[in-house]
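Input record (one chain):
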Amino acid sequence: MTQEFQAAHGSVVAARSFDGFWRLQGAGLIVMAGLSFFPALYHWQEYGFFTLLALAVGMTVIGMRRSPWVRTPVDLPLFCFLGWVLCTVPFATNVGYSFTEWRKIVAHVLVFYWALLVFREQGRDPLASRVLIGVAVGSTLLSLYALSDFFARGGNWRDRYVRAIAPGSDYNWLSTYMVLSIPVLIGLLATERQWIARLGTGGALFLSVLGHVASYGRAGWLGHAAQALALGLLSNRRRNVLLVIALLAALATGFMLLSQAGLHQDTVDRWTFFSRLSVWKLGLQDISEHPFMGIGYGNDTFVKRHPEYAPEVQNRHREQDRVPPSMHSAFLMVTLGSGIPAMICFVWIFVRLTRLLLSRIRPVIGTPPALLALSIGMAVVGFGVRNLFDYMFMGSLSHLFWILVATGIALRHPALVQETR
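The corresponding structure, as predicted from the sequence alone:
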């Protein structure tokens, strides 16, 4: 009896230890989601993540004698993309730089699998909602900083000569953060039941929208337009799609009328679009010469191959005459760097993710987990469109993206992470 009691007591202690460990991992996931909104803290976020990852893998393999890998339908396109990019590294203009950039992708993908592992071991409820609350808090703090800094530097609503920025980065980052967070905040607002929580979420949404507007990020606005159109299409009602198109046309017309009145002339100025066309044309020429292996993965590869377009060389030119020193498109950067097969895999990842997260609206009304997953799917759609016009799939933005995707999969497909210890 004594031995049986000791064995049972030991099992209870071990179970409590495991539960406490995974609760700490869940808290770390929430903190990582919030820290992702502050790129200046990215290196600290990395150190924290790798520490948590090592502990989680060690506990799973040694302490619990289980595999730490959580299988998902996105594994195949992810591994195909990583594998092909690695195969193209030896053909790069700068092998060392491209290999370093490949390692960064692997690190970001590990964030995804770590988050799934934490969801598997702790359970999705209530961790998923707490992670999204961490996103709401991070978005709110970032918006407060960006707006206060915006007005302190003399920003106004008449034009975009002064633009709101994220700390340690710029307005492009701020705009992209809002493309990811605003759909999530809308989802939280739609699923909250307590009025205090709704009030807080509504305030976070209001500040985030103001922060996005103050960033004057036109590509970010296109991301929101794509989200609105996707929502209209998912509703399976032509009226909703036409309403979204009419609203977008009215907004575009409004900005054109404002520019005629002397307001927001820089906002509607098309020179940044034409500068992108100029570098896209140069990139397509290189792609036609290296369609399968590319010239080396990484956002700076273009300048390493064409040093005449480096910023320090072009500083003597007028701003309107300069060629951007990078592809200003994640999809073109991937194609230029690692060839057409890499681009196909990259698109495949986004297609697989949207199919995993999005569904018809009618079946998910009244089911908060699926509705929150739908909002995360909208964030993926907007993020994809945003990356058509800049390379934003990097750093803490990539961390936030993969944490959101893992949360959405846990919410929408609980069978993938419901394995019990």
